[in-house]
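Researcher: Excuse me, tokens okay?
***
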Amino acid sequence: MRILSVSNRGALKKLMQDINVDPYGVKIMLPKAQSYLLKINSLSNISANILKQEMLSLGGDAALSADALTGRVKKTGCLVMGNLSQFTRLRYKLNKQPFGLSKLAQDLNLTLKNYQKASFQLKAGRYRLNLGNRSYIMGIVNVTPDSFSGDGLYKLTNLRTCELTNYIVDYAEGMVRDGADIIDVGGESSRPGAKPVSLKDEISRVIPVIKSLAKKINIPISVDTCKPEVARASLDNGASLVNDISGLRDIKMAKIVSRYKAGVVIMHMLGCPRSMQKTPKYNSLVDDIIAYLESAVRKAEELGVSRESIIIDPGIGFGKTLEHNLEILKRLEEFKSLGKPILIGASRKSFIGKILHAEPDNRLFGTVASCVTACANGANIVRVHDVKAVKEALKVADSIKR
């Protein structure tokens, strides 16, 4: 006798088939074997108590604040416990209830549907990426003189402009040969304390590279920028995806992404690069980041960005302490509730350096460990400097997981 550690629907189905369960029985019992703990941040006492009673009637439960039961507070957080079968029946019960519980039933249904989504077709310009069968890799090409990781290719000032562009393009082509699925070109450092780069300088750095690279590779090119003008120029010259660390705070960026039918990475950042690491604080880390991303995604879709073109990024290292970064990676599966592909950029980040007491160029093993953990916990894409090493590690990890 043993307790099984299985939550994947496919693995559960295979276990039942292995002991020759009737196909109809498999269909009925699969939802009973999938258990979830669902958090509702704020619910009125009346709604919460009805929810608890309905879940108890189905064999599940809901944990509420003790003060909600005595009426000392008007609202409470709620942890709802049950299997998929119970949640499905709960939905029908709540649909008949007043006090906003029918809306809660719709939200519950959407959250579970999002969380269970195992694959995505990402639309990015002329490209379609089928995310879900394996982990995808975004190779980092920093066309800057001051990247935190030490790989800023623009520091090679002894080269003439055309030679520098050719060198950078060759570097990116090497990443493609090593297995990169996307190339991300950036012309402005986002390291903590970084000073802004002028529009003219950023365009002069990234456009020659993107224009030349687009003629040589057949995978999506992403531009890492928060300036709408840079995004537009990049999309005009061969890019098909925008990696916006500011999370589409500028509505002009969303409109450009929509107009070009480009893909977009919406990232969470607390503050701006110059100030983001000055004592970052959250009320509730994951709750706050998910709320921010949910709002940004909704705004993007309202402005015309295709829902199939959006990737979310919780922003490792952008206004986060060491403990924050570790908690995000540990709880990454919770971000699946938003129903979007997840990108993680942990490569050579300072939290790895703090753990290993290592400089950026000695953080490869820590980067690999972070990427494998991220993909095991729900990430679809990892953004990295060292493509070959991460590619090989994830190929093995994907084989084990899938």
